[in-house]
């Protein structure tokens, strides 16, 4: 058998393999590139506006510091989408696909877990603010939060850097996947990082659930006390139907706002973290057949898209949970005070009262 014949047979075998167990299906090469293109276009606009607004807000609270870090993470994540679009749609060169495996994908996961960590810190801060509303802050506490933010970025960068360094193999054919570029140590480190990230996610998810449960209980107690006080103070005059309904409407909107962070977690991150463990095992260990590997890959890509939606949903969280963000945005757009109060559940954003409903969501 001559060399040309052997090459043709090898190419035919590769073609057959990619036909029976191919990742280049319509879902990966057409559907997801279109969806990620939409995410990039909308996400870059929303996050650019968010960054523009936060540049005009001083870092006078823990909450603002955490939100600014999330904005930076979301912008970096959004800029990884075009590389994924080109790679998945088979329009990228081999060099660009290698860049996606070594750098772009690593940045995507880095920013995802940075967002998760800062949402955990935000939950703790909101819980503290609700349970102890009169405890203020000072320059020393703000400095410590800024140092903590730097430590988080530094820790995750150090954790992810070996994934860049150890993804150093030269692809043996155009039909390669990212795990083919990893050295033996790279495959091992990839699995270690996956387990660390699982701990980060589930720990922060538990934190978010506990903190927002405490917040909800405290706000409900405050609402009950306010309702009882108002009822006791209206002996000579029966309350009107409109007056009676207002507290119930405000309470419903308050509950929706409180659970917005939980909703983002469950929609964006929980499905992916259920799917990622078997997918990583299928990458690093040869214990699954071709069909199962393809199934885990498609499941991972589908849930990964849900995680990418985080870059679009975070600006909504800024709007609903941060009064300073809304105020600065409305001033910049020259909109009247109280705009969208029917969405936020507040009569007017200029109201400076100390209602627990407002205190729990102000950027203080």
Automatic annotation (TrEMBL):
**One Pfam family hit:** 7tm_1
- Residue span, G-protein coupled receptors family 1 profile domain: 46-318
Q: Which GO terms describe its molecular function?
A: G protein-coupled purinergic nucleotide receptor activity
Predominant location category = membrane
Which residue windows are transmembrane per the record?
33-54, 66-86, 106-126, 147-166, 192-215, 256-275, 302-321
Tell me where it resides.
Cell membrane
Protein's membrane topology: Multi-pass membrane protein
Query: Domain of life of the organism in this record?
Result: Eukaryota
Q: Which UniProt keywords apply?
A: Cell membrane, G-protein coupled receptor, Glycoprotein, Membrane, Receptor, Transducer, Transmembrane, Transmembrane helix
Q: Which GO terms describe its cellular component?
A: plasma membrane
Name of this chain's protein: P2Y purinoceptor 12-like
What is the species listed in this Swiss-Prot or TrEMBL entry?
Sphaeramia orbicularis
Gene name for this UniProt entry: p2ry12
């Amino acid at each position: 058998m001559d060399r040309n014949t052997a090459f043709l047979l090898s190419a035919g075998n590769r073609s057959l393999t990619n036909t029976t167990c191919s990742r280049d299906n319509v879902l990966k090469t057409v559907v997801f590139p279109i969806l990620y293109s939409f995410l990039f276009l909308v996400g870059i606009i929303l996050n650019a506006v968010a960054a523009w607004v936060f540049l005009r807000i001083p870092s006078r609270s823990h909450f603002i510091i955490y939100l600014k870090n999330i904005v930076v993470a979301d912008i970096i994540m959004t800029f990884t989408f075009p590389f994924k679009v080109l790679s998945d749609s088979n329009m990228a060169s081999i060099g660009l696909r290698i860049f996606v495996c070594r750098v772009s994908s690593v940045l995507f996961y880095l920013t995802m877990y940075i967002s998760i960590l800062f949402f955990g810190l935000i939950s703790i801060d909101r819980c503290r603010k609700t349970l102890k509303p009169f405890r203020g802050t000072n320059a020393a506490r703000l400095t410590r939060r800024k140092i903590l933010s730097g430590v988080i970025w530094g820790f995750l960068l150090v954790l992810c850097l070996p994934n860049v360094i150890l993804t150093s193999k030269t692809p043996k054919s155009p039909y390669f996947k990212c795990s083919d570029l990893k050295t033996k140590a790279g495959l091992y480190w990839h699995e270690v990082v996956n387990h660390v990230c699982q701990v980060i996610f589930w720990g922060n998810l538990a934190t978010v659930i506990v903190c927002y449960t405490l917040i909800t209980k405290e706000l409900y107690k405050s609402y009950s006390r306010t309702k009882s006080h108002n009822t006791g103070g209206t002996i000579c005059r029966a309350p009107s139907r409109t007056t009676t309904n207002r507290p119930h409407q405000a309470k419903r909107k308050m509950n929706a706002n409180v659970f917005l962070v939980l909703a983002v977690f469950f929609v964006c991150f929980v499905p992916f973290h259920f799917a990622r463990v078997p997918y990583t095992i299928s990458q690093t260990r040869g214990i699954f057949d071709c069909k199962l590997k393809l199934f885990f890959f498609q499941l991972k890509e589908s849930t990964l898209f849900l995680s990418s939606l985080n870059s679009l949903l975070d600006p909504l969280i800024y709007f609903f949970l941060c009064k300073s963000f809304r105020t600065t945005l409305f001033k910049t757009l020259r909109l009247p005070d109280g705009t969208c109060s029917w969405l936020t559940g507040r009569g007017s954003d200029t109201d400076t009262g100390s209602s627990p409903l407002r205190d729990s969501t102000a950027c203080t």
